[in-house]
Write a structure and sequence with these properties.
- The structure holds 2 protein chains of 2 kinds.
- In chain A, α3 (about 75-95) runs parallel beside α10 (about 225-250) and α5 packs parallel to α12.
- The longest helix of chain A is centred in the N-terminal third of the chain and has 35 residues, at about 1-35.
- Helices cover about 75% and strands about 0% of the residues of chain A.
- Chain A is an all-alpha fold.
- Chain A has one domain.
- The termini of chain A are far apart.
- Chain A is built from 12 helices and no strands.
- Chain A has helices at about 1-35, 55-65, 75-95, 110-130, 135-165, 170-175, 180-185, 185-200, 210-215, 225-250, 260-285, 290-319.
- By secondary structure, chain B is an alpha+beta fold.
- Among the domains of chain B are: about 40-145, Alpha-Beta Plaits, CATH 3.30.70.3270; about 160-190.
- In chain B, about 30% of the residues lie in helices and about 15% in strands.
- In chain B, strands 2-3-5 form a 3-stranded antiparallel β-sheet. A two-stranded antiparallel sheet of chain B has the order 1-4.
- The relative contact order of chain B is 0.14.
- Classes of the chains: A mainly alpha, B alpha+beta.
- The interface of A and B includes residues 35, 39 and 284 of A.
């Protein structure tokens, strides 16, 4: 019986983190982006520097009418936001916070997370296809093209670190991590982060939702709660990507006093990476579709392959 | 040769630096804006200065000034004298929904009856409410700031120069002939023309 309680507790904690941390990241994005642009961002909601802005947004989204276009494929259209959101929840389940502090420790954790994150994009694709809208369709196709292009360097970079650690378990990878990996796996870190950004369709890789040309891409026909779920999926994606980058490349809970406050190190590093995601969004303009493909195929894939070679040499030398 | 990626780093540096600086947002409803002197917010009217000469209404490019007046007869003060007439202002209204804030009425007023006030918070829910009648225009007068001080070596204002000259002339006349000084003609009729 206590085992069931423990499992339930873990699930509840992961669910709470899943609902709270993305909001936190979203709020930081609101404020940090505003200050990076010499603005102040939301100031009124919650009476103090707009801390409740996203809560207010959520309340607004809930009140909105649930509209499904007449020509849309109703079932797929309604299912799409859930398909987009759930994989990130599942992925969060296996990301370790500290030694033993993990929703569910899997031996094939890395494999599982990568597979599940790839599935998240299917939701967007479903939304784009089922909306019966040309902009949605174009956006959906762009999502698919982006997924095809960036999944490869993403997986190759992750494979490099798995190779270095000699395990697919996320906990095992963190345990095997050593500060000099920052140098050894440096290329993989950059490739993983950049292609992760592209998989989340975050600026500067947000061609699928390029609002200047295709309205809002796959999300054009969505409104109210379903739209909010898509947005939440985006921010949950940021959290998962940041957490994964932390666990794979930045050493997770490694840091001073890691015995007692290891989980705090993981959180701090995760937020630092999430801030980087926001920072990059503010600093760079959106890439064109052809530039986007070129970066993936001519830039990241060769780099990732180079990293694999470097890792292989390193593993063989030290073995 | 430039380092590859230096442009990317520069982009990040610029945004980070901006984040460290103060934002330029004007917190308007919470903090009132610091308006420059002579801001054109709303037109105020000193009713007492107005002679209903209609110059402002006629010069207004937008035809937004409405003036109604009638002539009052002032009875002669001396026996057998002629009755005088005087303009009485009945209505003076400015329709701020039409006004384009060109300031021509204020420039053209010979008696300084119109002034700019920096107040700007007079939005209304009904467009008709934007026609301010003369009592409301009079109320704006309390918000008109004092004229800005002159620059250090600037010429004194025309009125002050005229008054000083007149006073000097009176004093000179007093010195030469104390009796004639009392009967001296009104000084300001000719004095104003002396200065360009």
């Amino acid at each position: 019986m206590p085992e069931v309680v423990a499992v339930l507790l873990r699930v509840v904690v992961v669910l709470a983190a899943f609902l709270v941390v993305p909001l936190l990241v979203g709020q930081v994005e609101h404020k940090a982006m505003a200050h990076m642009q010499s603005r102040v961002g939301p100031m009124y909601a919650g009476m103090f520097h707009g801390w409740a802005q996203l809560v207010a947004d959520g309340v607004k989204f809930v009140q909105k009418e649930d509209v499904v276009p007449a020509a849309a494929d109703r079932t797929v259209f309604k299912l799409a936001p859930a398909v987009a959101l759930l994989p990130y929840l599942v992925a969060l389940l296996v990301v370790p916070l500290g030694p033993g502090l993990v929703g569910q420790d899997l031996d094939v954790g890395l494999f599982f997370v990568l597979a599940v994150m790839g599935a998240g994009v299917i939701g967007t694709l479903m939304g784009g296809w089922s909306s019966a809208n040309k902009y949605s369709l174009l956006g959906g196709i762009r999502v698919a093209a982006q997924l095809m292009a960036y999944e490869l360097p993403f997986v190759l970079a992750a494979a490099s670190v798995a190779m270095a650690a000699g395990t697919l378990s996320l906990t095992g990878i963190v345990e095997a991590w050593h500060p000099w990996w920052l140098l050894w796996q440096g290329i993989a870190l950059v490739v993983f982060f950049v292609s992760g950004l592209a998989e989340l369709q975050r600026p500067p890789f947000d061609m699928p939702v390029a609002d200047a040309e295709i309205v809002f891409g796959p999300y054009t026909e969505y409104g109210g709660l379903r739209f909010a779920l898509f947005i939440l999926a985006e921010y949950a994606g940021i959290v998962v990507l940041s957490a994964l980058t932390t666990v794979l490349f930045l050493g997770g809970w490694h840091g001073p006093f890691s015995d007692s406050i290891g989980w705090l190190w993981t959180l701090v590093k995760t937020f630092a990476v999430a801030f980087m995601v926001i920072w990059v969004r503010v600093a760079y303009p959106r890439m064109r579709e052809d530039q986007l493909q070129r970066v993936a195929w001519q830039g990241l894939v060769p780099l990732a392959l180079l990293q694999l070679a470097v890792t292989a040499v390193g593993v063989v030398m030290t073995a | 040769m430039r380092m590859p990626g230096s442009g990317l780093a520069k982009g990040l540096a610029v945004t980070l630096r901006t984040m460290g600086r103060r934002s330029v947002t004007a917190h308007y409803p919470d903090a009132l804006p610091e308006l420059p002197p002579r801001s054109r917010g709303v037109i105020a009217l000193i009713e007492e200065n107005c002679t209903s000469c209609m110059l402002c209404a006629r010069e207004c490019p937008a035809w937004c000034i409405y003036i109604d007046s009638h002539k009052d007869v002032v009875p002669a003060t001396t026996e057998g004298g002629k009755d005088k007439t005087r303009n009485v202002l009945d209505r003076f209204a400015i329709d701020f929904s039409i006004c384009m804030y060109c300031s021509i009425c204020i420039e053209v007023c010979p008696f300084d009856a119109l002034h700019w006030s920096p107040e700007f918070e007079y939005a209304e829910l009904d467009i008709r409410e934007l026609t301010h009648e003369k009592d409301r225009l009079r109320e704006w007068m309390w918000t008109v700031p004092a004229p800005a001080a002159l620059d250090v070596h600037a010429e004194p204002a025309k009125e002050i120069g005229t008054a000083e000259k007149a006073a000097e002339r009176t004093r000179a006349a007093e010195l030469s002939d104390p009796q004639a000084a009392i009967a001296a003609p009104e000084p300001d009729k000719s004095a104003g023309e002396g200065r360009g």
